[in-house]
C-alpha cells in the first residue's frame, strides 16, 4: 500500500473472510485538526470492493478532493473518521451493515463489504 497523501493509494487484495465489524487502521497518523462527528471533512478517498478488489469510487480518479458533512455519509465513515487528524491516511473496512445494507437493497453496493482509504485534508 502506498503511504503518501500526494499519491492515489493502492489497496492489496485482502485475504480471508470479510470482517463483520468495522475495521479502522491508521496508515499515516496526522498531526492537524481532529475530525469530530459533527465535522465537514475535506478528503481524498479510494473505495474498492472487499470481494473483488475492484474500484467503485475514487476522488483521485476525478482529480479533486471532496467535502462531505460526516453526518450525511454511510455509518462506517460516521464511526471511522472521528478522531482522525488532518494529514492522516486511514483505511476503513466496512461491513454491509455499516455501508449500503444487505444484499438486495436499493443500492448497487448493497451486500458488499467495502474498503476505503481516506486522506483527511481538512475539517470544518
How do the strands and helices of this protein lay out in sequence?
Elements: E1 23-28, E2 40-49, E3 55-58, H1 59-62, E4 66-69, H2 75-80, E5 89-94, E6 114-123
Antiparallel strand pairs: 1-5, 2-3, 2-4, 2-6, 5-6
Task: Name the descriptors.
single chain; globular; 8% helix; Chitinase A, domain 3; mainly beta; 124 residues; six-stranded antiparallel sheet; 2 helices
What does this structure look like?
With 124 residues, the chain is mainly beta. It has a single domain, classed as Roll (Chitinase A, domain 3), CATH 3.10.50.40. Strands 1, 2, 3, 4, 5 and 6 form a six-stranded antiparallel sheet that branches. The longest helix has 6 residues. The chain is globular. It starts with 22 loop residues before the first strand and ends with a strand. The mean pLDDT is 94.
Quick synopsis:
With 124 residues, the chain is mainly β. It has one domain: Roll (Chitinase A, domain 3).
Q: Indicate the overall shape.
A: globular
CATH architectural group: Roll
Q: Report helical residue fraction.
A: under 10%
CATH topology, what is it called? Chitinase A, domain 3
Region (Disordered): 1-20
EC number: 5.2.1.8
Organism: Mycetocola miduiensis
Family: Belongs to the FKBP-type PPIase family.
Amino acid at each position: 500500500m502506498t503511504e503518501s497523501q500526494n499519491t492515489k493509494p493502492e489497496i492489496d487484495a485482502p485475504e480471508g473472510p470479510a470482517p463483520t465489524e468495522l475495521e479502522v487502521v491508521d496508515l499515516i497518523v496526522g498531526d492537524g485538526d481532529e475530525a469530530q462527528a459533527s465535522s465537514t471533512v475535506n478528503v481524498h478517498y479510494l473505495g474498492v470492493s472487499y470481494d473483488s478488489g475492484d474500484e467503485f469510487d475514487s476522488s483521485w480518479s476525478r482529480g479533486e478532493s471532496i467535502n462531505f458533512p460526516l453526518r450525511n455519509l454511510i455509518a462506517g465513515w460516521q464511526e471511522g473518521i472521528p478522531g482522525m487528524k488532518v494529514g492522516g491516511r486511514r483505511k476503513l473496512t466496512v461491513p454491509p451493515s455499516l455501508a449500503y445494507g444487505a444484499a438486495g437493497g436499493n443500492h448497487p453496493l448493497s451486500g458488499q463489504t467495502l474498503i476505503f482509504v481516506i486522506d483527511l485534508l481538512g475539517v470544518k
